[in-house]
Design a protein that fits this description.
alpha/beta, Aspartate Aminotransferase, domain 2, Aspartate Aminotransferase, domain 1, 2 domains, 12 strands, binds pyridoxal-5'-phosphate
């Protein structure tokens, strides 16, 4: 049976990428060695890191004002590393509490600097992105969770503020073109839209590196360390970066970010239209803030929740159970998710509706 993997991440990977990665794990380019056995400083591996970096720059049309580095520790580490690099202890950043990942960002940054929480939709289960707020004077940057993976809301237009955005794009990086002039830092773990768990792509605008921060930043956490060593200060996550490179090549071959956006919108429209049509289901998020990546929805008769999950799984649809603290359903539809899989889920929702009526 064909499996349709709606997991929130690690998530579906293009089959051609998986096939090439599997071959390279056995033997890489006639070297007699597995890719995983080769030194991160060998010319072949350095070429992979360079190509991955160049592809990120090309796909996003980054100007020379930006550096691209590959780090470890996930986006979770970046929630601390970004304020550590950019803000003095007595200075403040601003965050709008849009959900689980904004809350994590607030907690992480609060150990390092001051944090203005400008608004929160917690009271309504993060069913929207708060929009009526004012940025306090002196704010050093605005942390934005581009897409709340767990709660299912997404910025479709980024805030226009006088300070740089530092964006956690872990669940929607490379899924659409970006208004680059708004961003000072963008970071994303790879395991949703561009590869495996184990590497985090970080884009830093060069002037952000010149901020004079009055603290000792350990070398390993200093953006400048990784920029000046082309991400080779320590053993780079060679195989994850390789799979990212293959996925970036695939993204380019599909038509780049404009095509990713078109395809993602098509999938999201198909699913949300069914959620709105089908009297059994309700979307968790207000229309204008719904995520194209993670569609959160519930069944109106909670006693049927497990039956629907079982029915979906029996038909090859896996990974739609919501996050433990949120419950309900969440269908994650990253770049590599084919339209066909979303159609199957929609067909099953219709069939289930008929079955119980
Ligand atoms: C929006 C967002 N930010 C941060 C993270 C944390 O990423 P990692 O687990 O790679 O540290 C995740 C993981 O799912 C995420 O979805």
């Amino acid at each position: 049976m064909k499996i349709h993997n709606f997991s929130p991440g690690p998530a579906v990977i293009p089959p051609s990428v998986l096939a090439e990665a599997a071959d390279s794990l056995k033997e890489y380019q006639g070297t007699g060695m597995s890719f995983a056995e080769m030194s991160h400083r060998s010319p072949k591996i350095m070429a992979v890191i360079e190509e991955a970096t160049d592809l990120v720059k090309e796909l996003l049309s980054l100007t020379p004002d930006f550096e691209v580095i590959w780090m470890t520790g996930g986006a979770s580490a970046q929630l601390a590393i970004a304020p550590m690099n950019l803000v003095n202890p007595q200075q403040a950043i601003a965050v709008v509490d849009t959900g689980y990942w904004a809350t994590k960002a607030i907690k992480a940054a609060a150990q390092i600097c001051k944090v203005h929480v400008l608004g929160s939709s917690k009271e309504t289960n993060y069913d929207r992105i708060p929009k009526n707020w004012a940025l306090p004077r002196g704010t050093q940057y605005f942390h934005v969770v581009s897409n709340e993976t767990i709660d299912g809301n997404q910025y479709h237009e980024y805030p226009s503020v006088k300070v740089p955005l530092v964006a956690d794009m872990t669940s929607d990086f490379l899924t659409k073109p970006l208004p680059l002039d708004k961003f000072g830092v963008i970071f994303a773990s790879a395991q949703k839209n561009f590869g495996l768990a184990g590497t985090t792509c970080v884009i830093v605008r060069k002037d952000m590196l010149d901020r004079k921060v009055k603290r000792t930043i350990p070398h390993i956490f200093d953006y400048k360390t990784h920029v000046s060593t082309q991400s080779l200060y320590h053993t780079a996550a060679t195989f994850p970066i390789y799979v990212s490179m293959l996925t970036l090549r695939w993204t380019k071959a599909q038509g780049g970010l404009a095509e990713m956006q078109r395809h993602n919108n098509e999938k999201a429209t198909l699913l949300y239209d069914e959620i709105d049509r089908n009297a059994l289901f309700t979307a968790s998020i207000v229309k204008e803030d719904r995520s194209t990546m993670n569609a959160c929805f519930r069944i109106n008769q909670p006693e049927l929740e497990q039956s629907f999950l079982d029915f979906a799984e029996q038909n090859g649809v896996v990974g739609i159970k919501g996050f433990p603290t949120v419950g309900d359903f969440r269908a994650s539809m990253y770049n590599a998710m084919p339209l066909e899989s979303v159609q199957i889920l929609v067909d099953l929702m219709r069939e289930f509706e008929q079955k119980i009526n």
